[in-house]
Write a structure and sequence with these properties.
2 strands; 6 helices; 150 residues; two-stranded antiparallel ribbon
Length: 150
């Protein structure tokens, strides 16, 4: 898999939060239950997104997390960068130091094109794009195949 589990869960939770129609906080427990993600693991992932100023959290009985910016303004690239960093989109696919146009590895040209396409897709896709596609196509957001949306 290209992205870490933490990044995939961060993306899923972000899309879930983007589907919430109001600006309210959603408990991490609810998100973890609805998306079938470990509460403790999800808490750590969402903390990374909070530290990156993509989400904010509030403690207490009506607390939880919410997105800071409008969903049209948050790209998938921002979420990936906050959790996994940008190395996957800049480093050699074989992990060779100094790989580039002057000293390419055997997969350099193919990976460079693919990497650029992935970066473009991530930077051109907002959370709202995924919410709109998911709701209009009744696409699943949960691991168990259900079509639950916040």
């Amino acid at each position: 898999m290209l992205l870490s589990n933490a990044c995939v869960y961060g993306l899923r939770a972000s899309v879930y939060l983007a589907a919430v129609s109001d600006d309210s906080y959603v408990s991490i427990k609810k998100i973890s239950n609805d998306l079938d993600i470990s509460h403790h693991f999800l808490t750590k992932v969402l903390q990374q997104l909070t530290n990156a100023n993509l989400m904010e959290s509030m403690k207490g009985p009506k607390g939880g997390v919410r997105l800071i910016n409008p969903t049209n303004d948050v790209t998938l690239l921002e979420i990936v960068a906050a959790i996994d960093g940008m190395d996957i989109l800049t480093e050699c696919a074989l992990g060779l130091p100094g790989c580039g146009t002057e000293k390419p590895c055997p997969i350099h040209e193919k990976w460079a094109d693919t990497r650029d396409e992935i970066r473009k897709m991530l930077s051109d896709t907002s959370l709202q794009d995924l919410v709109d596609e998911g709701k209009s196509g009744n696409l699943r957001i949960t691991a168990d195949g259900e079509f639950k949306w916040a």
